[in-house]
Amino acid sequence: MQPNRFMTIERHILEGEKKHPHATGELSNLLRDFAMAAKIISLEVNKAGLVDILGFTGERNIHGEEVKKLDIFAHDMMLAALQHGGHFAVMASEEEENIIHIPKGMSIGKYVLLFDPLDGSSNIDANVSIGTIFSIYRRVSPEGTPGTLEDCLQKGVNQVAAGYVVYGSSTIFVYSTGFGVYGFTLDPSVGEFLFSNDDIKIPRKGNIYSINEGNYKYWHPGLKRYIKHLQDVDNLDKPYKSRYIGSMVADIHRNLLYGGIYIYPEDHIHKTGKLRLMYECNPMAFIVEAAGGRATDGKIRIMEIQPKALHQRVPIYIGSEDDVLLAEKFLREYNNL
Question: What is the CATH class of 208-334?
């Protein structure tokens, strides 16, 4: 099926809602609100070099990293677009240490939002693709009361929707509610996200691997052998291509379309990996699995991990199913050497 060039993201969300007779429309409304926030963030990203929005604020976030001005803008825009709609009980952002309560006087909803406002922000000044990642859950605390930390610390399998936006040569919005993965490209001439990728399916096996090879000497033996296997023409029809942008959302988006594996492992420096379970790994795992792929920490399915902290880090192996399975095999066989 070819995407309808006149299908906007709003129409597509409403069409999807009609397939679920008991839907209240609340999830559809909040997805549309998110699309609006993405349009505004995209506009600022595209003109960032022309206004006083690039560079550092002089502050550090809770991870000890210098905070970019555009990170703060994206974070604030997400809150402005989403916390007043009455859909959410509580939110959490990679840029905030604690959960974000809905302002007093505002309606409290039944959903929970976790988001990374600007993934890959170290690439901002170099004009490399960056993105926004989000994850939506139903609250587990009593409705009508303020949301809690428990609402945020749910396993990824409890997600009801997830998505990301890539700000690159074009702005692309990809989302899933668990029934297919769909992509929309922002047409700046009309200011709308138009349907561009219908029911995305990741190839079962790819020929691309994405990993920061600068950390090679810190890797565990199984990972070293796996990467050497991918590079060895004697073991494959042809060696895999190495493609690493350094922006998770951009690397995974490419591999989602073409196949392959993205890895950010644990190693002798990053004992528990580097990427955040709640803001990056769970939503990306939800999308990749909905597209037919696989996502694990090398042993355990990412979405089965019980989070213990809001900013918990985990290793991740994500992408085409055969590629991830082979990586797991190498880890099992060689990591004890």
Answer: alpha beta
CA distance 36 to 213: 37
**Residue 283 and residue 335: Cα distance in Å, rounded?**
28
pLDDT tens digits, one per residue of 274-311: 999 999 999 999 999 999 999 999 999 999 999 999 99
Q: Are 183 and 174 in contact (CB under 8 A)?
A: yes
CATH match for 9-197 among 3.30.450.80, 3.40.50.720, 3.40.50.1220, 3.30.540.10: 3.30.540.10
This prediction has a pTM of 0.91
Amino acid at site 123: N
Q: Which amino acid is at 280?
A: E
d(CA 184, CA 192) in angstroms, rounded, equals 9
User: CA-to-CA distance for 41 and 48, rounded, in angstroms?
Assistant: 10
For 192-242, write each residue's pLDDT tens digit: 899 999 999 999 999 999 999 999 999 999 999 999 999 987 766 679 999
Q: What is the DSSP string of 284-332?
A: HHHHHHHTT-EEESSSSBGGG----STT-EE-EEEESHHHHHHHHHHHH
